[in-house]
Amino acid sequence: MRWLVGSIILSTILGCDPYRKLARSKNLVDRDSAAFGYFRRKQYESASQLMEELVGLYRGNVRAAEVLYHLALARMHLKDYYAAERYFGQLVDEYPLSPRAEEALFMQAKMNYQLSADYDFDQRETKRAIDKLQVYLTLYPDGVYASQAEAMLSELERKLEVKAFQTAEAFYRIGRYRAAVVLYGDFLTYATEPDLREEAAYKRVSSAFLMAERSIEEKQLPRFSEAEALYRTFVENYPHSSYLPSLKAQYEYTKRVLQVPRRTAPSTPGD
After folding, report:
1. Could you tell me the residue range of the domain that residue 241 belongs to?
2. Are 161 and 193 in contact (CB under 8 A)?
3. Distance between CA 122 and CA 166 in Å, rounded?
4. Which residues contact 66 (CB under 8 A, 6 or more apart)?
5. 180: in domain
6. Rounded to an integer, what is the distance from CA 210 to the centroid of its chain?
7. Following CA atoms 130, 133, 135, 136 in sequence, which dihedral angle do they give, to the nearest 10 degrees?
8. What's the rounded Cα separation, in Å, for the pair 221 and 260?
9. Residue 168: CB partners within 8 Å, gap ≥ 6?
């Protein structure tokens, strides 16, 4: 009777974790079987713990790439995107000829994409994802994941544009017009979104006018001249813009300022 009860308890334990004995084995094949058994059962924490050991034991062996790939997937399923990104990257770096290399490179970029924060926050992961996606598209322009990579790249580039625009906006709102002129100008060198480009161009001109207006007298003339030049460029690029009426009043004021003769300092004997 006791034997029967003991057998039932042992069967229950092994039924809950049929890979425990294999996982503790000193035999590499047994531990490998346990790790992938856990993975198939979606016990990703147990799988990843074993696979981390197997990666070192298989180093230099083609099996290591397969273990790394599943280890990265296990961490991804656990939403540990930093670790997943690291393991996908390790596969690409150490086993570039592996059949898994293309997918691993894409997935590495995808992990950075998952970690990319809203535009209000730090964008380091966004930039890393963009770099990795560009590498993927360069190496695999017709790859299995090319269309997904292009869509993700467009989304991330748009996020960086919004971030840059919002940074310029912050300086505009607090009256730091010199910085706003520079930041809107930087934004316009690479931004592609038409609506944001037009608004940035408008606010760059407006910032230039406001900066000139608030400058000390000796700096007003060159700054109003700069604002006038930016205004003319805006009109050329956006002749039907809804922002033109707002800028027109600033421009008319600027013209009047520029037409007023500047006082010159009196000469002194011997000059």
Report:
1. 175-259
2. yes
3. 13
4. 100
5. yes
6. 33
7. 180
8. 10
9. 180, 183, 184, 186, 187, 200, 203
Residues 6+ apart with CB under 8 A from 45: 74, 78
In the three-class reduction of DSSP (H, G, I as helix; E, B as strand; rest coil), residue 124 is classed as helix
Average pLDDT value for residue range 152-171: 90
Give the DSSP H/E element, type plus range, for residue 223. Answer: helix 217-237
Helices (H) and strands (E) in the chain, counts: 13, 0
CB count in 10 Å sphere of residue 270? 4
* Best-predicted range by mean pLDDT (99-113, 186-200, 229-243, 249-263): 99-113
The answer as to whether 6 is a domain residue is no
Single-letter amino acid code for the residue at 35:
A
The answer as to whether 117 is a domain residue is: no
Is residue 122, in this structure, part of any structural domain at all? no
Task: Provide the terminal-to-terminal Cα distance of the chain, rounded to the nearest Å.
Answer: 122
CA 193 – CA 187 distance, rounded (Å):
11
d(CA 55, CA 57): 6
pTM: 0.72
d(CA 195, CA 206): 17
Domain count, the chain: 1
Calpha distance 202→219 (Å, rounded): 22
